[in-house]
Amino acid sequence: MGAEGGPAPDALSVQAYIDEVPTWHDGTPSLAGTQTRMQRRIWFLASAGKFFEGMIIFMVGVALPLIKLEFSLNANQTGLVTAAPLLGIMIGATALGNLSDRFGRRGLFVFEMVLLTIFLVGVSVSPGLPVLVGCLFGLGLALGCDYPTAHMMISETISTANRGRSVLSAFAFQAIGATAGTLIGVIILGNRDEVSDWRWMFAVAIIPAIVVTIGRTFVVQSPHWLLERGKVAQAQVHLARLLEREPKYPTSITLEATASDRAEGTAGWATLFRRPWRRSTILASVPWFLQDLGTYGIGIFTPTIVAATVGTVAADDGTVTSAIAGDLNGAEGAAVIDVLLLVGIALAIVSVNRFGRIKLQIVGFLGCAAGLAIAALSTAVGGTMQILLIFGGFMLFNLMTNLGPNSMTYLLAGEVFPTRLRGTGAGLAASFGKVGAVLTAFLFPLLLDSWGTMAVLTILVATSLLGAFVTWKFSVDTNGLSMAQLDQMYDEPPTPTSTSAPTRNDLAQPDADEASLV
């Protein structure tokens, strides 16, 4: 079996080796060999991290009524509980995620799961509110670190043609985790009748987290990162392990070390706010902030809003049985709504290469605004129409957020920065996004009490429209660009005889050949 396009040069880039499609002796592409066992393992273990994020964050919303009852929480304390994991994500994405640029992707890939496991145990046995909040914050630190690291582990070990779909299909496990977290709550609440039932919701994730931690210790280091740090020999070893297949191809690996690989090293946060990377930073960060205002606010408080809308339990009944019944009622309604998260991410996976990241993000933001507007109208009517509007609005919102901004902001943040800045840039974008999530989680209980559902949802309509505008204004289209091209995308324009690196204009409006690559 040989390489498509003839014999390879003596030295190639990391991405050139990864993008090669083996062929049989008669020239037929061996498509079954395009994904190696190691690439599939990395994808699965990165997907598990997104699964835990969706499960834990959305499970907080299901567990919240029982946590409030056990610890007698007021509105401020309730906001603290919901905001703690999101605050942890915000800090972890920057404070820990950027360490992957300095110490490598694999080390952080394992360390974050160790943290997650420890704090899951802590939440499950927490004796009081301070310990609970501290452990929820710790869970957020681990999940925040996973935001840039999991993305880079996939995108830096996968082919250009498969990068977008692979990252998004891993991100889909956030929606699967959200649905699973809600269903776990429904099962536990439906079979038990104790105020401490919320502890079991978190405890069920401990064993799977241990398994994933062990699995992550056996993956390769990012060859892109190793080469960027000038570790050519190690990069060749890890790239060979990454591409190991039967029959063996490539038979040998020789990497080229460019001047930038040896000289530039790791840059700091200040670089992100200087030209030419400022545009990428705005695109990666501001829309993520705006979409998290809605996604986490709606996601966490869907059970509460649904339960209040359906209203099957008297608001002044403070018994454990009635609290569990109301919580179960809201969780069941949220489970139905959360299914649309899965539909949205499935559509994103099949559409991203055809329509591109920017178009899907803009359309998704507009769809989110429409869904929230429909849900807001439910407060002006009653009876069956009210239920139809609240369910219909939230279902449309979940569909469009995962088709567009919730998935595309994650994908773009890991693509619009070069290797030396990728962990720092993607981590900063995730942190900035979680500022919106923290604000929403902390303020939502207060605003729902003082302003009402309609006012809060109307504000989120405006933020969604603003997200569409910012995406359009600062668009950088990465569709069809390899990791090598992303590393050079803001280089000086090539000479008329050169065909090397794309310029900013090339990124903003990729030509037909680039778009057709994926």
Secondary-structure map with pairings?
Blueprint: E1 2-3, H1 14-19, E2 22-23, H2 37-71, H3 75-95, H4 99-103, H5 105-125, H6 129-155, H7 160-191, H8 197-203, H9 206-216, H10 223-228, H11 232-242, H12 259-263, H13 278-310, H14 320-355, H15 357-377, H16 383-403, H17 405-413, H18 419-450, H19 453-473, H20 483-487, H21 504-508, H22 512-516
Antiparallel strand pairs: 1-2
Helix pairs in contact: 2-3, 2-6, 2-7, 2-8, 2-9, 2-13, 2-14, 3-6, 3-18, 5-6, 5-8, 5-9, 6-18, 7-8, 7-14, 7-17, 13-14, 13-16, 13-17, 13-18, 13-19, 14-15, 14-16, 15-16, 15-17, 15-19, 16-17
3D architecture notes:
The model is unreliable at 1-8, 259-265, 312-317 and 493-518 (pLDDT under 50). Strands 1-2 form a two-stranded antiparallel ribbon. It has helices at residues 14-19, 37-71, 75-95, 99-103, 105-125, 129-155, 160-191, 197-203, 206-216, 223-228, 232-242, 259-263, 278-310, 320-355, 357-377, 383-403, 405-413, 419-450, 453-473, 483-487, 504-508, 512-516; strands spanning 2-3, 22-23. It contains 22 helices and two strands. Helix 3 runs antiparallel to helix 18 (419-450), helix 5 packs antiparallel against helix 8 (197-203) and helix 14 runs antiparallel to helix 15 (357-377). The two termini are 24 Å apart. It is mainly alpha-helical and 518 residues long.
